[in-house]
Amino acid sequence: MSNDIAGYLIIGLGMALLFVSYRVRLNPVFALVLLSRWVRWILFGLGMAYLAREWVGSTRAYWSLAPMFLLLWILLESIYAWLAVKALSLSNLPVFPNYRSSSGDIGWPVEKGYLAAKDEIKRLGFSLREKMKASLGPQMDLQSALYLDESETIRLQVVFAPRATGRPALFFILSSKSEECRWATDNVWLPFGGVFPENWKVDRNPFTRRLKSLFKKHLRTIAKEGATLEKFNEDLVDELNDEQDKLDKESTERGVLFPRRQRPEFGKLTVDGRYRVWKQILLLNYLGRIV
């Protein structure tokens, strides 16, 4: 590859990264986030190879330098992800936050995509039942809302997760129950720090953007299982917190989390738990896979 072609390619990738990053700030869609990471990775590999030849004076072929820097980026990402997981484990951020009812307004962003999602919730027959908050630390709360469908057997949780840009990322979680069984369909594209019980059936779809598509998948799963669904309890917040406690207990029993009494000393995640979250971060960041 000639230096001129490499230069033009790097300029093109730089412009593409700026454009994609701008779109991600306006509308944090997982597909765009994934694309931005790939563009950034390739730009680093090609750009560093170009600088090595032009500025450092390396005589090695461009095609041999670029893969080396691409692998270096993965190594640095892996180290950074491991340190981030370790910091998360030692921080005060809860793996399974405890929710409380809130009388304040839900912070729906005044943007086309979010407003369309809000209208779609109504069209699908869901009604707002609870507004909630969960403390993530000093002066930082996680806002969420719980909806029920007309039969009160399917629950929709909308979570507004804080992001570095100050704009909330919107996730949908649909869940149905039958005794102790749970069926959940979500489009969450964050790593999960715990494990689900064996009688929970979870279908994760990070690339699915519309609630309507997610809801159809959920209904197909329920129909395939042939389950007779139960109504959710009247106190939805207490029931949700009970589910959070069950997830915490299951994750502790299976060696992903330390027992609560040991967490102030050792952190929340065990070595196996840290490795699990670290692997999820890398798979999500570059392959869009959730394990």
List the main descriptive attributes of the protein structure presented here.
291 residues; 7-stranded mixed beta sheet; alpha+beta; globular; 18% strand
Main sheet makeup? 7 strands, mixed
Structural class: alpha+beta
- Which bin fits the share of residues in helices? 40-55%
Q: Report the order of strands and helices.
A: HHHEHEEEEEEHHHH
Overall average residue pLDDT: 86
Strand order of the largest sheet: 1-2-3-4-5-6-7
Alpha carbon gyration radius? 22 Å
List the total number of helices. Answer: 8
Q: What share of residues are in beta strands?
A: 15-25%
Indicate the low-confidence ranges by residue numbers.
none
Shape: globular
Number of domains: 2
Q: Report the span from N to C terminus.
A: 38 Å
Number of strands: 7
Account of the protein in words:
Strand 2 (127-137) and strand 3 form a beta hairpin. Helix content is 49%, strand content 18%. It contains 8 helices and 7 strands. The two termini are 38 Å apart. The model has no long low-confidence stretch (mean pLDDT 86). It has 2 domains: 3-90; 99-254, no CATH class. By secondary structure, the protein is of the alpha+beta class. The chain has a 7-stranded mixed beta sheet, sandwiched between helices. Helix 1 (3-26) runs antiparallel to helix 2 (30-54), helix 2 (30-54) crosses helix 3 and helix 2 (30-54) crosses helix 8.
In terms of topology, how is this protein built?
Blueprint: H1 3-26, H2 30-54, H3 62-90, E1 99-101, H4 112-123, E2 127-137, E3 140-148, E4 154-161, E5 169-178, E6 181-186, E7 200-204, H5 211-225, H6 236-253, H7 263-266, H8 271-287
Parallel strand pairs: 6-7
Antiparallel strand pairs: 1-2, 2-3, 3-4, 4-5, 5-6
Helix pairs in contact: 1-2, 2-3, 2-8, 3-8
